[in-house]
Amino acid sequence: MQHMNVTPQTTLYVGDHIRDIQAGHAAGMTTIAAGFGYLAIDESIDEWSSHFKVDHATELLPLLQSI
């Protein structure tokens, strides 16, 4: 981030595991939970306390354009 001259407050963290969302929160970033990728069958991204969530990759670009 320092190399790119950005701050945690202006960075979005997209993750497909709860530890990704926790890391984003710990770093002070806005988090987006991805309901695709390595998500376990019995896992629910609704429980991860992310700022935003997407269930399909096609939802990511419209979300990014809206925030």
TrEMBL record:
GO terms for cellular component: cytosol. InterPro entries: HAD-like_hydrolase_sf, HAD-like_sf, HAD_2, HAD_sf. Keywords: Carbohydrate metabolism, Hydrolase, Magnesium, Metal-binding. The keyword Translocase does not apply. The keyword Metal-binding applies. GO terms for biological process: DNA repair. It holds the Pfam family HAD_2. This is Phosphoglycolate phosphatase. It comes from Nitrincola nitratireducens.
